[in-house]
Amino acid sequence: MMPALTVARREFAAYFATPVATVFIVIFLVLAGSLTFTLGGFFTRGQADLIPFFSFVPWLFLFLVPALTMRLWAEERRLGTIELLLTLPITSGQAVVGKFLAAWAFCAVALALTFPLWLTVNFLGQPDNGVILSGYLGCLLVAGAYLAIGAAISALTRNQVIAFVLAVAGCFLFAAAGSPVVTEFLSANLPILADVARGVSINERFAGFTRGVISARDFLYFASFIGFWLFLNAVILEHKKAD
Amino acid sequence: MTALIEIEGLTRKFGSFTAVDDVTFSVARGEVVGFLGPNGAGKSTTMRMLAGFMLPSAGTARICGQDIVEKPIAAKRELGFLPEGAPTYPEMSVIDFLSFCARIRGFRGSEMDDRVAIAMSRTQLDGVRLQPIETLSKGFKRRVGLAQALLHSPPVLVLDEPTDGLDPNQKHEVRELIREMAPEKAIIISTHILEEVAAVCTRAIIIARGRVLADATPAELVRDGRSMDDVFRALTLGEAA
Q1: Structural domain boundaries, residue A61
Q2: 3-state secondary structure of B120
Q3: How many domains does the structure of chain A reveal?
Q4: Region label for A54, one of left (φ > 0), alpha (ψ between -120 and 50) or beta (otherwise)
Q5: 3-class DSSP state of B34
Q6: At what angle do helices A160-176 and A129-156 cross, to 10 degrees?
Q7: Residue A71 touches partner B, C-beta closer than 8 Å
Q8: Is A46 exposed, middle or buried (0-12, 13-18, 19+ CB in 10 A)?
Q9: Is there a contact between A88 and B104 if contact means CB atoms under 8 Å apart?
Q10: pLDDT digits (tens, 9 = 90+) for B152-203
């Protein structure tokens, strides 16, 4: 596990050595803040909670997280450093986990920097801070799920545009699987798949967290979801590393 | 003398194209093998398989007795590898980059610092230790790659074109470094520069189209009075005719 943490440390520092960190965090904060106050109706709702904020975060991540992951392996290929990294005494799995942890920690930093919203809502009223914490936890898990999909897709192709578009599509598939449009269509035509769609939907699981409900099943869902995609990533990397 | 590098029937196919075809040789401690061949002959592919970056389609190799297919991590620990073009992370400083490589190789604390310091002084990088690698000249970048390969004082070195793109002085320095390390290591270097083989190598292996065409000392290759250039051309073009 130590080599994975070493890779994660290097990757994490690399985000802040390039403009990636600033651009990502600024855009995320501007969009999250403005959507919460405008479309989300933070003030007009007259309720002391962060529901308007949490309802936008998964949709922001849907576009921003693939922007992070598209360069994950493509950049290593472009620089040729993939040959360096994978000829050091580490397994593909350790490299995959290291990169994932760095990107996840980076998303956690972006999320943590939305703390002024939390301060605001505490200043204006008496929100249930436990619910807010569980909402943040949900956001982090959604980010992890999207990162895992995006990272696996970026190992598939050298082309960053393709990696971005496919990752957005992949994330959208799991985000929207539980939406009424999809489930109603499926229950009318393929009833068996409707339950499956609801079961694999990221947004369905996330909704529980925003209500302050943290269940072991949802945790297990996110853990196995992330684990599955990281495993896939390691397999893809092992087979395509030299391409 | 036991061989530190043993290559047995190493073969790599890309679709129907055979890049490396049944290559077999071994390298003992104290030997510096010059790996020669035209572009696309399979030099880099062979080296990448040795370094565990590519899997062989058939055959295998052992680094200090560790099989590259069955025990890739153990084999990689014994090996210092300079990939073609000496890739490095451009935004990192020299010392950060080398510390990262040392840390992955399991060194910590003062031992890590010592290893990095020794590698930097052997490759004359002390003057640029805090500079981001992207601001360095090609010669320095190549030396960062070399320093990374030497960090853990591996018994086996595989260097893909270590002097490519360097000026004559830098080439001389790198050759001196290789000569200096030669007695206690088994070294394979690939190169396009034929004089280099005569200068640093104890043995030359010429490959073309993935096959080993000659395996002899540089002196043996030019025994009949021909120049190294002529020998190389005769061997690599003769096969095509």
Answers
A1: 2-240
A2: helix
A3: 1
A4: alpha
A5: strand
A6: 140
A7: no
A8: exposed
A9: yes
A10: 999 999 999 988 878 888 888 888 989 988 899 999 999 888 888 888 899 9
